[in-house]
Design a protein that fits this description.
This protein is α+β, with helices and mostly antiparallel strands. The chain is built from 15 helices and 15 strands. It has one domain: Peroxisomal Thiolase, Chain A, domain 1 (3-Layer(aba) Sandwich), CATH 3.40.47. The protein has an eight-stranded mixed beta sheet with strand order 5-4-6-7-1-8-12-11, sandwiched between helices. The protein has a three-stranded mixed beta sheet with strand order 3-2-13. It has a two-stranded antiparallel ribbon with strand order 9-10. GO terms for molecular function: hydroxymethylglutaryl-CoA synthase activity.
Length: 445
């Protein structure tokens, strides 16, 4: 069976930066550690005045196609995953295709285009769709372009404001990939939840504490379901575990839960039992409250062990390096986690050929998916082509007053006239409004 997976990827971050410790925290009257230690974030990325989900997605896709020497005739499918869409009918993929057609002689008229929505997990769902399309033999030798693009904007003074971010990830899904092969096994955890939603509104309504609990519950279900189809799981099976990362502090909780689950019945579990005792079982307690208290005590002890901390440092921490600098990208979040982990491995000379990743995606509302990926030879060249460090370094550093202006620019309910902070160059840019209220774009050389 021919391998199908991610052949290449590109990342495009919003061109503006909000420093959480130096700029945001003082303006809010907060201790910087609330963000850098509690949330695990150092900065957020924002789109400039001429940027939005279309320009970021189109720029990432254009860079990917140029690097791989592709034309529109090579692409049979364009799927865009976003929870920042501005039209309830016309998909963002059509806008992005229109942008790309400005710079190519061919068009995408014979490519299937769509838009996926299920909060942050829709980026992974779009990968699944592309994978299934190729596996079904409907691709006619063509590849799929999957684009996750979002501007995660919260209302001012909302508890989620510090986790904001903006950027896009473009992924080429094809046969015989050069980055990772996707597994056929998947595990799901899904339930009708109202932890985070946008009922015909731009800014999300969030129940923060419940959202964390729902995230963890769905992740646990997805991991259990994955084990049903993939077989027993051992901590040593996976080199890294990229999680959906709304903020790194959330991943700390999910990683502890996941590790606790996958060591059960293993030699690692036996070693942990000698050190901190066996994991609590529900049958040993009269009430749920007593059981949950015991589980918390056990998990706290678990995370303090050297064995767990070594595992976390090697398997989880490397995947958070990009997110710490750019914030939450919603649908792109887990995909920049994958990129960060592979980037760390390349920079540190780690041999990941044929190594396995366990990818844990999540979307509020709510659903989690766990699947495995195998890193394939060629990954080092593909990851080495990314210039995310340069993009992050070159962002314009906003003052707090400028941040307030930028927030107003991208708030659909606010009309404001703000000058650009950077100049577009060799990229797509917003170019005003059309006769039916549509957004227009142009390529700026």
């Amino acid at each position: 069976m021919t391998a199908v997976g991610i052949d290449a990827m590109e990342i495009w971050t919003g061109k503006l930066k909000l420093d959480l410790a130096e700029t945001f925290a003082p303006a809010q009257g907060d201790d910087p550690g609330k963000y850098t230690k509690g949330l695990g974030l150092r900065a957020s990325s924002f789109p400039d005045v001429y940027e939005d989900i279309v320009t970021m997605g189109a720029n990432a896709a254009h860079r990917l196609m140029e690097r791989k020497g592709l034309t529109p005739e090579d692409i049979g499918r364009i799927d865009v995953a976003t929870e920042s869409a501005f039209d309830n009918s016309k998909p963002v993929s059509t806008y992005i295709a229109g942008c790309l057609e400005q710079v190519y002689d061919e068009n995408f008229h014979h490519a299937n285009k769509g838009e996926r929505k299920f909060a942050c997990i829709s980026g992974t769902q779009s990968l699944d769709d592309a994978y299934n399309w190729i596996r079904a033999g409907r691709n006619r030798g063509r590849a799929a372009l999957v684009i996750a693009t979002d501007t995660a904007l919260y209302a001012r003074d909302d508890p989620g404001e510090a986790t904001q971010g903006a950027g896009a990830v473009a992924m080429l899904v094809d046969e015989d990939p050069n980055l990772v092969e996707l597994s056929t096994e998947q595990g799901y955890g899904s339930a009708d939840e109202t932890d985070f939603l946008k009922p015909n509104q731009q800014f999300p309504s969030v129940d923060g504490k419940r959202s964390v609990n729902v995230y963890l519950a769905r992740m646990r279900e997805a991991l259990e379901d994955f084990a049903e189809v993939a077989g027993d799981i051992h901590p040593g099976d996976y080199e890294m575990i990229p999680f959906h990362t709304p903020f790194p502090g959330m991943v700390r909780k999910a990683a502890a839960l996941g590790y606790r689950h996958i060591i059960r019945g293993t030699d690692v579990g036996d070693l942990m039992a000698e050190e901190i005792g066996r994991q609590p079982m529900r049958s040993d307690f009269e009430t749920d409250d007593e059981f949950h208290a015991a589980i918390k005590e056990y998990t706290d002890a678990l995370t303090e062990t050297e064995r767990y901390q070594d595992w976390y440092a090697n398997s989880i921490e490397p995947t958070l390096e990009i997110s710490r600098e750019v914030g939450n990208w919603y649908t792109g979040s887990v995909h920049i986690a994958r990129a960060a982990g592979l980037k760390h491995a390349r920079e540190n000379g780690l041999d990941l050929d044929e190594a396995r990743l366990l990818v844990a995606s999540y979307g509020s509302g709510a659903q989690a998916e766990v699947h495995a990926e195998t890193v394939v030879p060629g990954w080092e060249e593909e990851i080495g082509a990314l210039d995310i460090d340069e993009q992050v370094r070159n962002r314009y550093d906003l003052s707090f007053a400028e941040y307030e202006q930028v927030h107003d620019v991208h708030n659909h309910e606010t009309e404001t006239d703000v000058e650009e902070f950077t100049a577009p160059e060799n990229e797509f840019a917003f170019d005003g409004w059309g006769r039916m209220g549509e957004r227009k774009y142009r390529y700026v050389e």
